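Re: the 113-residue chain
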Amino acid sequence: MIKIYHNPRCSKSRQGLAILEESGKEFDVVKYLDDNLTEKELSDIIKLLNISPIELVRKNEKIWKEDYKGKELSDSDIVKAMIKNPKLIERPIVVNNKKAVIGRPPENITSIL
């Protein structure tokens, strides 16, 4: 099953959702700002993306700059920061079985459909 981790207020996330809608495939929408991810869920997504946790962080967010930037953080600390502050998670993320991509640019999504 395809899942999109979606923030309706983000234009790239809305574009990613449109790509999925146009694909005609079934998918689930996870509004991760409303339904917080668990540490395990986020860690599993990071593994599927084949990146380190810091690569999923939106480093221009005010909360990152004020509370985390410049600090020595472990991967676990970074995952916990994203769980506590889901606005820090890059979006959209699309997962299709054992593959995942960050939809920046949104066209990345077509590579796993």
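The chain has a mean pLDDT of 97.
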